[in-house]
Amino acid sequence: MGTGKVGADHPYLHAPHGGMPLRDDPQPRRHSPPALHPAVVPAYPPPESDADESWVWSQIKAEARRDADAEPALASFLYATVLSHSSLDRSLAFHLANKLCSSTLLSTLLYDLFVASLAAHPTLRAAVVADLLAARSRDPACAGFSHCLLNYKGFLAIQAQRVAHVLWAQDRRALALALQSRVAEVFAVDIHPAAAIGKGVLLDHATGVVIGETAVIGDNVSILHHVTLGGTGKAVGDRHPKIGDGVLIGAGATILGNVRIGAGAKIGAGSLVLIDVPPRTTAVGNPARLLGGKKGDDMPGESMDHTSFIQQWSDYSI
Amino acid sequence: MGTGKVGADHPYLHAPHGGMPLRDDPQPRRHSPPALHPAVVPAYPPPESDADESWVWSQIKAEARRDADAEPALASFLYATVLSHSSLDRSLAFHLANKLCSSTLLSTLLYDLFVASLAAHPTLRAAVVADLLAARSRDPACAGFSHCLLNYKGFLAIQAQRVAHVLWAQDRRALALALQSRVAEVFAVDIHPAAAIGKGVLLDHATGVVIGETAVIGDNVSILHHVTLGGTGKAVGDRHPKIGDGVLIGAGATILGNVRIGAGAKIGAGSLVLIDVPPRTTAVGNPARLLGGKKGDDMPGESMDHTSFIQQWSDYSI
Amino acid sequence: MGTGKVGADHPYLHAPHGGMPLRDDPQPRRHSPPALHPAVVPAYPPPESDADESWVWSQIKAEARRDADAEPALASFLYATVLSHSSLDRSLAFHLANKLCSSTLLSTLLYDLFVASLAAHPTLRAAVVADLLAARSRDPACAGFSHCLLNYKGFLAIQAQRVAHVLWAQDRRALALALQSRVAEVFAVDIHPAAAIGKGVLLDHATGVVIGETAVIGDNVSILHHVTLGGTGKAVGDRHPKIGDGVLIGAGATILGNVRIGAGAKIGAGSLVLIDVPPRTTAVGNPARLLGGKKGDDMPGESMDHTSFIQQWSDYSI
Amino acid sequence: MGTGKVGADHPYLHAPHGGMPLRDDPQPRRHSPPALHPAVVPAYPPPESDADESWVWSQIKAEARRDADAEPALASFLYATVLSHSSLDRSLAFHLANKLCSSTLLSTLLYDLFVASLAAHPTLRAAVVADLLAARSRDPACAGFSHCLLNYKGFLAIQAQRVAHVLWAQDRRALALALQSRVAEVFAVDIHPAAAIGKGVLLDHATGVVIGETAVIGDNVSILHHVTLGGTGKAVGDRHPKIGDGVLIGAGATILGNVRIGAGAKIGAGSLVLIDVPPRTTAVGNPARLLGGKKGDDMPGESMDHTSFIQQWSDYSI
Amino acid sequence: MGTGKVGADHPYLHAPHGGMPLRDDPQPRRHSPPALHPAVVPAYPPPESDADESWVWSQIKAEARRDADAEPALASFLYATVLSHSSLDRSLAFHLANKLCSSTLLSTLLYDLFVASLAAHPTLRAAVVADLLAARSRDPACAGFSHCLLNYKGFLAIQAQRVAHVLWAQDRRALALALQSRVAEVFAVDIHPAAAIGKGVLLDHATGVVIGETAVIGDNVSILHHVTLGGTGKAVGDRHPKIGDGVLIGAGATILGNVRIGAGAKIGAGSLVLIDVPPRTTAVGNPARLLGGKKGDDMPGESMDHTSFIQQWSDYSI
Amino acid sequence: MGTGKVGADHPYLHAPHGGMPLRDDPQPRRHSPPALHPAVVPAYPPPESDADESWVWSQIKAEARRDADAEPALASFLYATVLSHSSLDRSLAFHLANKLCSSTLLSTLLYDLFVASLAAHPTLRAAVVADLLAARSRDPACAGFSHCLLNYKGFLAIQAQRVAHVLWAQDRRALALALQSRVAEVFAVDIHPAAAIGKGVLLDHATGVVIGETAVIGDNVSILHHVTLGGTGKAVGDRHPKIGDGVLIGAGATILGNVRIGAGAKIGAGSLVLIDVPPRTTAVGNPARLLGGKKGDDMPGESMDHTSFIQQWSDYSI
């Protein structure tokens, strides 16, 4: 977790650059992000390369074209949402605008907002791609990139939150909160616009996820449904959990307070966590107890560590 | 659980024909389904008889006509959804189509799909009737069949999933997944199209229910809100729970992995279940411990057993 | 809890007049409601004074005007929902009608219903104001009254339920249940119309809250998301929890059966509560154990007691 | 034409009180309006009596109930538009609001506006009744009052214009013009809000009718489709036709300039009229020539005169 | 005009079987309808052959597929309206339902109605095909069958009227009038449901067309915009024009009264016709004068006569 | 009329550069367009100067802000359509998209199309400004630029047609025809995409206007409602009228065939014109006869001529 908010020196959070920066960072990153393990996603180009977005977009269009040909009843939907658009970010902006609009918040207004935000912030677009790769590689039920883009409400909720996060940083708070509210109603996912969320994040199923204002989530985190990252005690200020890179949080887990969940930790389903969890440690139960480091993790290299999490990740996936 | 998927020889799952078959079964069933106990639903005709559908439909129309007369503000809604239709399946198709449509997935398309699916698959229509009888007999807050048909999002989510299940079996997967997505957004109920669901199933309150791809649910099962039937460990393949006939799963329970919950078992609210649960056994806690067989269940006949579950069912109902 | 349903003589529930009466009470209340502690809401006028509604409404309009000026993209929304209306109850009626309408339940019908109900029942309007004050004073993420009015689905769900409660008491049950159904779909909050809910209640985040038919909730209660107040055992009759004044219920807590949660009690996040909880006592765990009275609460005056809860409330807030 | 705008002393326009007054007139009218001839509408109570509105409303409800019983496919529509409402003006306000709303002009806003305007201005309500009686008695294709209320776009356009006229008189011009615009789009009827329109007016078929800013139309006038009451010559000021009581204007007729069409005159279909037309005179042709007074009109009593117009009216009706 | 209404013995109207019969005619027609002249539509199969519907439908799908490939922005629309449907009548029913629906008349209801009507009445489907062939062969601006099916409001208005005509004949008058009303609003075309309309009819541009209750229109008639077929004189009864086969009526023409326009006659643009017009005669002017038979029409065979009209038809087309 | 289509050498059509070019013209125009006469629009900056668009846009915003302040009921509409937009073309694109969208042609798609077209074609934006100035200066009922932008369906129909014209020129004909169809339905104005329309054109009232495929309309033309520019005789090819600069066409006039209406001519209301009309000549009647040149037009300078037309224009305005 490299954001200043969390503290790069904290021993639990040593992944170099997690979190979603409030502004695009022109400086080169010192540590390249851990690549997805080749055994898991062997056919993919290196994540975050320049070619990623166009490659993923070409895959999405190919999938949509295949589905439109095979299923006439869905062809209109697929052309409207994917095949009539010139780029991934326009397709996403269109789809989000139609999902989140209401009788008092028109789709054209939201479409404009999403198109402009994605165009102005390359990091938002890179996060879209990373999240799509994450869902595709980690969720065995994910039938394709287009399946995630069109149907995963966790994916859509995060993309809308990232736009809301940019608005929040620009002090356009009323609009950011209105977006949060629509996402909470439409997707039943309630993430405060101020929360910082890294790349390659998967919200699987997503119903009922609640993430508080000062929460920070690293890169390559996977969060199941009904998970709460809540506050405790302080009326104002930094009061929500900090989640390190590569963490997996099982369904229904509740993490409260400004605690640190170290990189590569795993939180069991249904756990109640009120304390820090060291890196590569598993916490289970209500209240949670720590199970210590995992076997074979004594000297985990960054990338290895991540892939081991990913392999174990499916323990609680469905 | 009599479906081949679960294994009829498994000692936990000996109810003869649970689960929703992927295709209509022309063969006569060897075991007749256990009737609802007369003490619970004394005024009802025998369930699953040929006359059921028309009887339930006549009840629904009578209720709707009574409510339309008493409440002018609701009359338009009741005529549109119930009283203008010639049959239960057309009423349901209309109602589901209007609930699940979006600006990119038109109501006429969905209506066509639901009408055609219900017409082609008598088992879908029989399951609609059985689910209505289940809600009416088990839920003390159920004010009538029309109340369930129109207002229970769990009921509506299951009917839509059964149509998606048929599409999945016909290899129309993109459309099946699109339906799943709309159900997850509109009802906050996320059931994979491949999951097999029996008849007489009640999803009470239903918000937050998540059921994975290879899950199987028997007949006459009752599931409260926030219940997860999730996966664990295997990246692909058979990885979700198998729920026997007559099982009751309390609010917020999480069952993970390819475990077997035996017929007539009861899972306590908030439990985390990672192991098999024998028939007629109660599991409670996080992680769950087994409480053994229930008193008076030593020699449960099929029908008795079911009614005893139903009587106990309300332990966790609200 | 002063409603007859709960019993004013019950030792756990001695707050004088919680709950939402089924009909407007023309008699003067014997005990004035406990004021919010000045240390928490120092700038507010005395709650429930006659001037409250107009003061809060003037604040909401000022906030909306400020936001409309600062954010052109939101101005249309703010004028439609707030600035074009002559009173708080018309603004709320408009907003709720547009949120809850569907293709078969038109917004004009709902608007008519909400306007008429709020006009006829001053207690409904007073409760709106009290709930807005509660959110503003207790939730550190609440950016203003207008933020709560427009964006908090818990707030909106409660206001709709209170109208449904009035309809239920008038024996307009079909309409009341249709409202419940729409609230459950749109906000993922499922509260039976018969449940009695006091004033100054905060449903924070709100997703997944389920409250049963015979539940009673006192004044100044705070309930986090995923909380269930469910039934157990009895097929019909009084079967749901009674929540005293000033109680705090943490995220994901499940309270089942006709148990009494005493005034000022606190239920920990993720707890499963099947027994009575005495006043000013904390219950945690699955199943819950009692932690006894809190320090400094030996002689709690009503108002002190409330403020102590409110100060501690944020233990589980996010 | 008794309005001051037209000049009661003008020989062509001696009907005592045509036109729609800008404000409710508390003074008693000196001349009672000419009653509809009993031979034409024998079963009707005297027009403009106090009982008219309730009698017409009871007829409409009886017709709607009969149609709803006979035609289930229309029952929802009839309950929504007629049978769920407590009065004629609420039914009309609802129907107009749903017709004229758009994605940027919400139905609830328009409903509010129409309800408030009809409640505040008894003359608007009286004109609604008079127009319904006019359509019922003069149009042989009119199947009932409800047919006119629900389906006649000329009727609906006039009622909306009368509300816009009130707004115009209150100097709420932007809203009045927005209403005009919606009426012009939805009904293809373009009437300036400032135009004064009497009671008992029938716009039959109505498509393409255009009526300019300073036009005045008397009572009991019948106007077919494609009729223009346009201006000529003066850039500003009084520049449009004045139509006397009981005038009939055939399909496609064009009347331009501040000319006076005398009471009881008849303008042939397709005529172009640029000059005054004396009372009880027929004008036909392009440009129009006058055919002189009609036989038997030497001593026309007011009511006789009207009924003779009405009998002849159908010359160009369809 | 062979319908009994008009009188087959009338010398002006000797085309054998014009008009739309109220019920499907099981008897073989004595005279086959005049074929479209090969010089005009050389590539078309013989009209009204059994293969027509499938041939036209295959053309429409080919055009839509070509356009969807060439124009991604329109692909979603084309798949929704054409390419996802299994037959021409389902495509038309879907398109009409979405055009004519309103907030109180739902698209699913209309879709059901149109699908059922077209399925039950082969003559309706045959008329759809004949009208498409008419537009394609006569209108030089018609870019294809799909252009007419999707974009010609005259075509769509007639198809809706034919369904309303069937409803009227079944004494379902309230629904028939509701359809008329929606067509009048949406397409600005006002045709009474009782009017009988033949096959191969073209309403070009169509805005402002008004056709009265007892009007009858033969086969292969072409009518431009702003045309009125209105009534005169009789309060009730047969009071509207009868239009023979192959007649052409120019833009803005007004024909009033129960007059007969003979087969093959031509009515000039802007004419006012109050008298019978013999076959193969041209009427022009206000009021109209007759120009006598056309050269070369001394001995017109039926089919020749029709094609000569069709060749001359474009005199007033645009 | 300087477009090649019409022929710059034709004596009737000597205005230098009317019509809407199919593509932006990079070459400097040899003749500057005739300025609006100062006596008519004294306060306006010179038309077509670079500052026009920003000046008009600032006026529109000022008017909208004034109206929003004065009329809360309209404020939401004005913010959505005008005040939330950064430029005139975005406001227009938003407004048109919301007017012309349907359930199968989404507003976001149309918005995208209009934004892109207006951005790519400066001549489209210049024509928007010229048309606004034309309405403001010529129509005495025009209450402001915003009144025209928001409420004039003739203005909106022309702007949509100009975009369709660009699409037609790019051989995107299916989309162009779909736009034409929506405009014909929504505004009852039917203009073929191939028709070439100049700048400063006013369609007043606009209902029922029909303009054919090969019609050409010069600059500063005013056309009233129900006007037809139709074809005659030729099945294909150049078959519609050519309208010179500064022509005024009265309500209901019908002009048929490839005739030339010379610059500054005036066509009387209800006229039927089948022949050429020389410049500065008036044609009236059915069929039309020519009235010769106007007094004082013997030596009309271009700009004088225009203003004389504009002064006379209101002869038939309403």
Automatic annotation (TrEMBL), chains A, B, C, D, E, F:
CDD domains documented for this protein: LbH_SAT
Keyword Transferase among UniProt keywords: yes
Protein name, UniProt field: serine O-acetyltransferase
Reaction catalysed by this enzyme: L-serine + acetyl-CoA = O-acetyl-L-serine + CoA
Family membership: Belongs to the transferase hexapeptide repeat family.
Transmembrane segments: none
Xref: InterPro entries: Hexapep (IPR001451), Hexapep_transf_CS (IPR018357), LbH_SAT (IPR045304), Ser_AcTrfase_N (IPR010493), Ser_AcTrfase_N_sf (IPR042122), Ser_O-AcTrfase (IPR005881), Serine_acetyltransferase (IPR053376), Trimer_LpxA-like_sf (IPR011004)
Entry-linked PANTHER family: SERINE ACETYLTRANSFERASE (PTHR42811)
EC number: 2.3.1.30
Superkingdom of this protein's organism: Eukaryota
UniProt keyword annotations, A-Z: Acyltransferase, Amino-acid biosynthesis, Transferase
Organism listed in the record: Oryza meyeriana var. granulata
Pathway: Amino-acid biosynthesis; L-cysteine biosynthesis; L-cysteine from L-serine: step 1/2
